[in-house]
Sequence to fold (452 residues):
Amino acid sequence: MDTFVIEGGRRLSGRVRVYGSKNAALPLTAAALLTDQPVTLRDVPDLADLRNMYRLLAELGCVRTSEPPAEQPGVLRLHTQSTSNSHARYDLVKTMRASICTLGPMLAKRGFARVSMPGGCSIGDRPVDLHLRGLAALGAEITLTAGDITAKAPQGGLRGATIFLGGASGSTVLGTANVMSAATLARGVTIIESAACEPEIVDLANMLNAMGARIRGQGSPRLIIEGVKELHGVEHTVIPDRIEAGTFILAAAITNGDLILDNCPMDALLAVVDKLAAMGVRIATVPSAPGVPPAIDPMRASVRVTCDRVLKPVEVTTQPHPGFPTDIQAQLMATLTLADGNSVITERIFPERFLHVAELSRMGAKIYRQGPTVIISGVKRLIGAPVMASDLRASACLVLAGMAAEGTTVIHRVYHLDRGYERMEDRLNSVGAVIKRVDDKDLPPDSRIAEG
Ligand code: EPU
Fold:
């Protein structure tokens, strides 16, 4: 298994480009099931989660029609060529929860879908009741058989409805993607109230509209979808990844660095920028190249990140967009371990998403957890240690902590990181980090972590 060995204490300095968004690309690829025509996506990151999605889509008859040409990395062409298999099997779904995004598109286009029920994961319970409630409101008959969700459209197809999609923690991102995608081909008008406002949903709605759908209200909690008979092919560029951008910004902050990010979706990061400003981290728009005026597209800006030598503590609560994203909570926590004072983080989306707390404590962080709230009492320094990655964002948090720590940090199980960050170590090394990827069998025994 791959492991990172990080030599800490280096300031990051230089320029990196933010890649296309994983969480936008996953439902966009599933939307290729809604049409018989080819769907071409640009700026698709090369990630384990997406490779799993292509495998699943291929089983469902939607194949990758060409490898991206070398001169065009990130280009993906998908084309549904057969509808004979509509069963997303457990052994593919269990590797990636986002497989649930195939449910709505298949149901709408084929009138039938069978998708294995995704289990929980290391960040907590991940129910899909809201997805199912929304699809049932469109007329689908939903049953659960042998761990699989089976959804059948009524005769004549799905029909528009008014649906409230809010749950105890707000709306649901992939649930909104599923119900909105299905409603594009329903008869009549669908209103989704308490829809997710995340930029990834806006990106999906924009692509569906470019395929012939009629969706209004994307980015707000009320979506209005007028059903159409069919959708056609499309070429679409995936939005840049706001979580990757936030991770790089915090990488600059925790190493007291000076980093320029290109293709940065500033417009999707306002809550993050606001908290970071309070911590003493400055993010300013700059030209994308010498002599070029700053980009006017706030979703694809070039920004320079600089910060005060000593960061200030803050209080943060994670919330659905436009609030502070849960997917940046762990990376923020790593950074706050070195702030001058006590910070408070409350996790409102996934109240158990704190597996990184114990690992940060191994590196000398002072963190006290009480239910969904964590108090971080800033320390003067972190000390490198062997630690274990437990999920995607917890891994990113440990990479940040490792880069700021004194000495060597060994992060086990970085396959979690590879699910969501493309060539993370190469890109961080290009701006001054010292991170080596090694096989854990090649590590000295005292750096290994016992399984079990
Ligand atoms: N929820 C329900 N019922 C449902 C669905 C969700 O109660 O049917 C609850 C969840 O338990 C949670 C809250 O609603 O408390 C929000 O969950 P949501 O459905 O929005 O999460 P998701 O759509 O499954 C996406 C991202 C996650 C990100 C969350 C929240 C993708 C592929 N995943 O998951 O990303 O944390 O939204 O923003 O888009 C990550 O990238 O590391 C990641 C976990």
The mean pLDDT is 94. The chain has 14 helices and 24 strands. Residues 19 and 240 are 6 Å apart (CA to CA). The pocket of EPU is lined by residues 23, 26, 98, 125-131, 167, 169, 172-175, 326-327, 349-350, 392-393, 420 (CB under 6 Å).
